[in-house]
């Protein structure tokens, strides 16, 4: 299957594994790349020396293209950029910041750059900044996303109409059927997060993975918009957030409740009570923890079956 995304990144299938904090280490990234997709290491949860270790291990585990996701609001950003350049990482996905800051520098070293956005406005700004591709993420997505609450199936055709460069759809995509739907609306491929959280190679804690596949419809809520919007599974911590909102809290009070390392506590250490459990709405569809390669295989099989079914209408 060849299109603008597979040609741009040198991959077999237009499936990108999201670079999620505390979930996306070298094992997951290399497994997805070996299966024909594009695996991403999530730099957002790594100190520079840890990121360097994961890049080196990923190189040893795959001879296929892989990338690094870099949230630009994190400290040590300059050091992280220098590491991906020195290690000749072929692809970088940036998010949560101005794409003009590092795009040209990365591209001058032969690195392809994609930027994650949640609106047409920011998609156009990223295109003007010279990025090679856009990820448009609907508010169904897990982790941090846009304040606009635009759904993926609404966002994708609007962004596709506005752009000239390749487009990846993200948010609520865990099956080949969803992949076909977003591509029918103008996307060139998909970025998949939550489905890969519930994979054998994900670096998330087993307790969190199990909680994800046990989640049902309506268990995730977008909250903390005053800080950075995040979609969470309901638990004791989320109930504390809700209780605080009823009092009309200040930003400082929200920050105090959130504290430090709350996401690490929930997703990486497995504290399902006090931790921040970030996951997408699509978790309600998941019922199994699978090898990452099997997830890619299933998505492509479902995609072809759905494509044939639609063609027969």
Polypeptide structure, described:
The protein has 313 residues and is α/β, with parallel strands linked by helices. It has one domain (4-203, 283-311): TIM Barrel (Alpha-Beta Barrel). It has helices spanning 4-9, 26-34, 48-61, 77-86, 103-107, 120-128, 152-162, 176-184, 194-197, 206-214, 236-245, 251-258, 262-268, 292-311; strands at residues 15-17, 39-42, 66-71, 91-95, 112-117, 133-137, 143-144, 167-170, 189-192, 220-223, 230-233. Strands 1-9-8-6-5-4-3-2 form an eight-stranded parallel β-sheet. A three-stranded antiparallel β-sheet has the order 7-11-10, with no helix packed on it. α3 (48-61) runs parallel beside α4 (77-86) and α8 packs across α14. It is globular, with a radius of gyration of 18 Å. The mean pLDDT is 95.
Question: What is this structure, in a nutshell?
Answer:
Helix content is 42%, strand content 15%.
What order do the helices and strands come in, and which of them pair?
Elements: H1 4-9, E1 15-17, H2 26-34, E2 39-42, H3 48-61, E3 66-71, H4 77-86, E4 91-95, H5 103-107, E5 112-117, H6 120-128, E6 133-137, E7 143-144, H7 152-162, E8 167-170, H8 176-184, E9 189-192, H9 194-197, H10 206-214, E10 220-223, E11 230-233, H11 236-245, H12 251-258, H13 262-268, H14 292-311
Parallel strand pairs: 1-9, 2-3, 3-4, 4-5, 5-6, 6-8, 8-9
Antiparallel strand pairs: 7-11, 10-11
Helix pairs in contact: 2-3, 3-4, 8-14
